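Please review the protein record below. Let me know how this chain folds according to its tokens.
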Amino acid sequence: MENQIQKTKTKTDNAKISGSKITKDMNLADIVFKYPEAAEVLLDYGLHCVGCIASSFDTIEMGAKAHGMSDEEIDEMTVRINEVIEHKE
């Protein structure tokens, strides 16, 4: 488990959130902290883990897969998050 947490942290550290596009390999808690408006999109897709301890080590993809989402749904959700952030909806 510790190894998985380290891998996730490394991915998040390598993916620059500020000024960059949100991707499915970014950490949920980091995204919601930086872009609170993203939480509504995540909640709309059933990812209630945005307020859970798991969000501190899960990526969008990991959380979505844990909730049974398909790759297409994850991609759609990621696009929607980026739209909301870009347009401040």
About this structure: The chain has five helices and no strands.
